[in-house]
Structures are given as structure tokens and as C-alpha cells.
């Protein structure tokens, strides 16, 4: 298993958020996204249902655009144009999800939208990301 690069990024209020500190409270699900990405727009509302500070959205957009996107997830900002954290994780497209265990191992990773992957992650966080009878596609590429 690959080790997750540690990083510190500002949140939307400018306060620093550091992965290694967050891991002290349990596994962290990192979600890289862009506000212009239709698959990200589909994925993030389901992840909001996890209702956990351990689910962290990493925006590849500026603070103003990200605030306007309005996700309820804890959100930090990668540096637009240089994307140091996205590059450290080898992001090729979004959304990209990485489940980082408390020992910094990446135990699960995926790109795009996968209903099965979100159900599996939901089980880890003790939630059902989909409501009974809700129409949800099985897959959507990022």
C-alpha cells in the first residue's frame, strides 16, 4: 500500500488544516474536486451525507469560486495553477478519492463516481450515502 503524502493547506477561512493532525481522530477521506466538473457536482452531495469532519474536500479552485460552490464538507484549497498537493497524490482527473488510514497508508482510492465505491466508503463511516428508491447511476467517469 502507498503512503499518503502529508500536507497542510488553508481552509476557506484561511486557517491551516494538516492531514497528519486530522489522522489522530481516525481515517480521513480526501476528495479532490473542481467546481466546473459535472461528476464532482454529482459526487459531493452524496459525500455530504457522511456528515463527518474526517471527509475533507480539496478544491482545485480559488477561495471565492469554492465558497460559491457551497459544499457542506470541510474544504481546503490546493494552490491553483501549481496544485502541489494534487501533484503529490498524482491526480490525473477529478473527482479523486483517497481513504487514508491513521498510519498514513492509502487503503482505498478511486476516480470518478462509483456507486459501489461510495457504498463501501459509507459503510466505513457508518452511513448510507443513498436513500432507498433514489435514482443513482452506477458509474460516471471523472
What this model shows, in words?
The protein has 142 residues and is an alpha/beta fold. The chain has a single domain (8-126), classed as Glutaredoxin, CATH 3.40.30.10. It is 27% helix and 25% strand. The protein has helices spanning 19-22, 38-48, 63-69, 84-88, 115-125, and strands at 8-10, 16-18, 28-33, 55-59, 74-77, 96-100, 106-111, 113-114, 139-140. A hairpin with a 5-residue loop joins strand 6 and strand 7 (106-111). The chain is globular. The mean pLDDT is 96.
How do the strands and helices of this protein lay out in sequence?
Blueprint: E1 8-10, E2 16-18, H1 19-22, E3 28-33, H2 38-48, E4 55-59, H3 63-69, E5 74-77, H4 84-88, E6 96-100, E7 106-111, E8 113-114, H5 115-125, E9 139-140
Parallel strand pairs: 3-4, 4-5
Antiparallel strand pairs: 1-2, 3-6, 6-7, 8-9
